[in-house]
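User: Can you fold this complex?
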Amino acid sequence: MTNYHQKVFQLTRKIPRGKVCTYGIIANFLELGSARMVGWALNKSFSQGMSVPAHRVVNRKGELSGRNHFPSPDMMQKMLEAEGIEIKDNKVMDFESKVWYPEI
DNA sequence: TAGTTGACGACGG
DNA sequence: TCCGTCGCCAACT
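Assistant: Here's the predicted assembly.
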């Protein structure tokens, strides 16, 4: 468990219900240097049994690029739809209005 | 110890 | 506008 792991987890937990965030936004806000590190850290969160709403993190196009890393590929979509986010073709509909930006 | 991998994004052609 | 390439950097093998 490293420091930036915890930063990613803490920020991800702040994402409100019904909103989504992107890897790039998180990487930029936390000054991680690379968006890939965010995805990697979230991947670790599962293997370490962390309760992180990783399904609220998508790539910059609003695509559910991380769904294959969930226990089942459609789990990410189901969880987002349960929060009122519409998913079509593995993409977040009306993506720009759903994006949440971290507050300092 | 060194090479490879990866839930991305920016940039140039 | 779309596609390919490269940089990012820590963990894994």
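Chain A has a mean pLDDT of 90. Residues 2 and 102 of chain A are 21 Å apart (CA to CA).
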